[in-house]
Amino acid sequence: MTITGSAHQMYPGMQSGGRTRHVINIAAPASPGTLAYTFTATTSAPSGATAGFKNDGLQKTLHAVFMNNGAGTCKFKFWGYHAFAKQWGLIQIIDVADGSNAVIEITSVNDIDVYTIIPIEGIERIAVQATTYAGGANVTCYLGVNTI
């Protein structure tokens, strides 16, 4: 086998653990299509240093897909963890209209799929909390990360 290119080129199927341009499934990095969550009720906020999913290589963006496979409205919030504080905090984004911070909340309704991209640069672990759950709903969630 001959490999040409830069010294940083990896064999097919291998990952460096560094930053990536393509989206990697955070629930199972080597298994695209693996669900991160299936929600059938509200959930608690994450706690402890091993809750949620590790952001390998400290990727910059989180890609989230929510699929409400039933009836009713559900709402979700995103949490981030960093070892410097050993604490979880709600991920917020700056509102460009007035410069204030706003907690990111996703609303998923009857049979509507929601896709969003969230900046997460520097966050070591990611978790999703179901804050509102409508009976009869069944929401699945995929999470992916990348550099772009």
Description:
The protein is mainly β. It has a single domain (24-146), classed as Jelly Rolls (Sandwich). Helix content is 0%, strand content 41%. The chain has no helices and twelve strands. It has strands spanning 24-25, 37-39, 53-54, 61-68, 74-82, 87-90, 92-94, 101-103, 105-108, 113-119, 125-132, 139-146. Strands 1, 2, 4, 10 and 12 form a five-stranded antiparallel sheet that branches. Strands 3, 5, 6, 9 and 11 form a five-stranded antiparallel sheet that branches. A hairpin with a 4-residue loop joins strand 5 (74-82) and strand 6 (87-90). 23% of the residues are buried. Residues 1-16 have low confidence and may be disordered.
